[in-house]
């Protein structure tokens, strides 16, 4: 029996190839995701290890806010601290440094020289060392002289002797002369794609720290024989809890850990799409084995007649599945390995100077590939194996394919699974039980499976209706009947298409509804005619300078101007963001907010106001106090003096500008709302504002409509990313259509030969197979659009209060595009099977067994 199974498997190489391809497609996305994240993780381990190779111990002031802990070294401290560290036992040398993100280079075109990392450092030049090498020019000696890293020089197209404008952390734009270029050890133009600008120490202190005789980092070298850990402990003991002292290894691990946290989320997203691809692949494998068993009916029946038991027949099919699963898993892992490597090189290629570590072979990827591939294949082959074992030998030998069975059991199972899925989804979305995320995920998965089980019943009337469009020709009628005569096969093939389309449509519905809700909210709540807003290009927020704000207020067309800033703080020990207005009275006027309780027209130090919704959520009433931990000044108790009406624009906690000025990391305003005077031209006022901020390339001015559109663009970008990733799942489903039709053509070889013999021409044969492909693909697309729209609408409705959704907005444009694309995809998917059908030799086909 084993020999017969292996002979049967190897005798039909096309069938073997198509079966293996189904497994490969199911496995490669998961293995590729795991390989990618493992390779990137080790790449960043190596990168940060190289960065801190020459660091023994680094000292930085500790932030008062826990959420700022990831960006250590941002707070300045007196230069005297360097002398204090230099006297600690075991210290050979202590060097005060200015090294902060926030030195934004401006190119020759007047725009920011941005990079993919968002790291734009400003530093003081302390001379060459083991890490920094001056490769051209000289060190900066005057206040208007700078040295840049060669990576920045190349990207900006500048050289020694050229001038460059720089916006520093104090948000002042000045022109500097480039007097030198530097590289890092090993001849690297940058460490990881960042830009670094070196000033003289006094200039760096004033421009980056805002004060003279200040540093933000101390580089500490150990005396011979003193370990880094011992040196760190000595420095900690001397400086106390107000400072952080860390070894180079600790800095490397912390930096790498922060990146890996992002990579983990990135991996979860990829694995989520991998799960979708896997679900589609299950349908593909199930359909493949169903057709294979149908094609082998006579062969298996002959084995039964010769004495093979049901168990042997079943084990034969499962053995075939096992072998295909092993081979497919191996190839799937190999393809995933290649995809992971390609993704790693593309990702790291965004950061000049970084190099991909050796390609990873994570155990998790190997185990997942073989576990998923073998398990999925065995499970998918189980039902066809049971079906093969149950066919009586004599009955099987009379037919080349199994007859259709009633759909009663499948329909009942579909109804039960769908009902349970809807219950789980409803329970999860309403938050009535624990494990909300798992309830929602299980509900979505169950709904897709339930609908897939109901698809055979749905397919009969719907396929007949869709196929009638093509029934005006004989090949069209044949193609329609072929797609409807085996509803199980059509349902499984269309189900694979349905899953990808349904998920894309559901996500599109959610994003469209959220985008519309935000647009409606901004249009209703935003009363300003113009909005001045910074475009963030680095970790440091862009700001509107005091001079620019004063000039805007002085414009003849400007009525009320309200500028605001925000910062991360801790409120009663919990991380939060709070707002602050430079003139809170003007803000309430331009935003047209009314006081629900207390006063909201002014704020003194030690006071705060909230909107009505925030007050209800936090159970706050007038006179209550909260403890706010500011980044610079630490804890401060604030008293609630006013509650405003609900507003999406001005919601949350608002503190006084006096407290923001002393406590915020960046107290300068980053946004301003402008109400144009009656009779003044909005367009002319906008042009005047643009003229004022022309030297601040990080800041732009928008009309109200433009501002609303800008806020909605983020959802469009996110939707494009989701659609690109889900194209892989759709590609698998298209290959599933090709696979199904190819196997179907093989199964119907004699039938096709008879049709050709009675006069069906080659072109008509091609049209018949293509029609079948188009009908199946369009059926899956229509079903996916309906399920996806319903699923998206349900989620939007359930989360209306939580996320502020408005009415459900269906993405009609995208849905029409998906439908039209399905016609093209169906035609393309039917191309290869139709070519095989057309090339069949008529006489050989008639004699085919």
Structural class: alpha+beta
The helix content is: 55-70%
Stretches where pLDDT is under 50 for at least 5 consecutive residues are: 67-71, 399-403
Radius of gyration: 34 Å
Describe the protein:
The chain is α+β, with helices and mostly antiparallel strands and 849 residues long. Among the domains are: 57-258, no CATH class; 456-526 and 705-849, no CATH class; 543-695, no CATH class. It is 57% helix and 16% strand. A hairpin with a 5-residue loop joins strand 9 and strand 10. The protein is globular. Mean pLDDT is 80; it is low at 67-71 and 399-403.
Quick overview:
This protein has 849 residues and is α+β, with helices and mostly antiparallel strands. Among the domains are: 57-258, no CATH class; 456-526 and 705-849, no CATH class; 543-695, no CATH class. The strands form 4 sheets. Strands 4, 5, 6, 7, 8, 9, 10 and 11 form an 8-stranded mixed β-sheet that branches. The protein has a 6-stranded mixed barrel with strand order 16-17-22-19-21-20, surrounded by 4 helices. Strands 3-13-1-14 form a 4-stranded antiparallel β-sheet.
